[in-house]
């Protein structure tokens, strides 16, 4: 049973529908107390980092997510949800994140990019993936991205990289915690395969 966390930051329906396409029971969760009833959770999200953290803090969902992470059961953050897994973000100033993975979220550095590259990074791009259970059956999949900020973390946490002007971490893993910058729910068969791998992952 998959729990999809609702914290007013969008793309819930598309993630729910993707689970349905995979014949997986999923529920959208607003009550932090419900998280313990699930064997894995998805932290989706589209929007601003600070607004997301404010909502997680004010509703008690942050503490519930942290407890779930400690349980050892798998959880995955998607897009903004991935960024929230890190220690902090520089979006609209400094905001503390969940700190489940060491690292920070930074805006794309235009000084490292050719002028033809626009921010946000929007559209289809490739993840060059390491051999990992999350990418089982896939090699360098083509996926859909929409973001202006990206994770900066140590190599040991990175399971996939993407190049947009320069190389950045687009998929991460630390123990039972997974993060995925593109939108699998909008990435057709490749994205559904990644969600399926997460649903079936054994740690």
From TrEMBL:
It holds the Pfam family GATase. It catalyses: L-glutamine + H2O = L-glutamate + NH4(+); 5-[(5-phospho-1-deoxy-D-ribulos-1-ylimino)methylamino]-1-(5-phospho-beta-D-ribosyl)imidazole-4-carboxamide + L-glutamine = D-erythro-1-(imidazol-4-yl)glycerol 3-phosphate + 5-amino-1-(5-phospho-beta-D-ribosyl)imidazole-4-carboxamide + L-glutamate + H(+). Its EC number is 4.3.2.10, 3.5.1.2. Keywords: Amino-acid biosynthesis, Cytoplasm, Glutamine amidotransferase, Histidine biosynthesis, Hydrolase, Lyase. Its main location: cytoplasm. It is found in: Cytoplasm. Gene3D superfamilies: 3.40.50.880. Pathway: Amino-acid biosynthesis; L-histidine biosynthesis; L-histidine from 5-phospho-alpha-D-ribose 1-diphosphate: step 5/9. InterPro entries: Class_I_gatase-like, GATASE, Imidazole-glycPsynth_HisH. Residues 19-199 form the Glutamine amidotransferase domain. Signal peptide: none annotated. The active site is at 79 (nucleophile), 183, 185. Heterodimer of HisH and HisF. IGPS catalyzes the conversion of PRFAR and glutamine to IGP, AICAR and glutamate. The HisH subunit catalyzes the hydrolysis of glutamine to glutamate and ammonia as part of the synthesis of IGP and AICAR. The resulting ammonia molecule is channeled to the active site of HisF. This is Imidazole glycerol phosphate synthase subunit HisH. The lineage of its organism: Bacteria, Pseudomonadati, Campylobacterota, Epsilonproteobacteria, Campylobacterales.
């Amino acid at each position: 049973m998959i729990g999809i966390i609702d914290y007013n930051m969008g793309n819930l329906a598309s993630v729910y529908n993707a689970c349905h396409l995979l014949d997986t029971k999923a529920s959208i969760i607003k009550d932090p107390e419900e998280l313990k009833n699930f064997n894995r959770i998805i932290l989706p999200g589209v929007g601003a980092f600070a607004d997301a953290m404010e909502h997680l803090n004010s509703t008690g969902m942050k503490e519930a997510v942290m407890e779930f992470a400690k349980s050892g059961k798998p959880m995955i953050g998607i897009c903004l949800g991935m960024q929230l897994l890190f220690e902090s973000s520089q979006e609209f100033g400094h905001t503390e994140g969940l700190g489940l993975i060491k690292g920070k979220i930074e805006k794309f550095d235009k000084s490292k990019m050719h002028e033809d590259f626009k921010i946000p990074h929007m559209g289809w791009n490739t993840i060059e993936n390491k051999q990992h259970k999350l990418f089982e059956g896939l090699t360098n999949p083509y996926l859909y991205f929409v973001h202006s900020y990206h994770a900066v973390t140590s190599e040991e946490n990175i399971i996939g990289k993407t190049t947009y002007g320069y190389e950045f971490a687009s998929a991460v893993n630390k123990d039972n915690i997974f993060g995925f910058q593109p939108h699998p729910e909008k990435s057709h068969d490749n994205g559904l395969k990644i969600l399926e791998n997460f649903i079936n992952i054994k740690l």
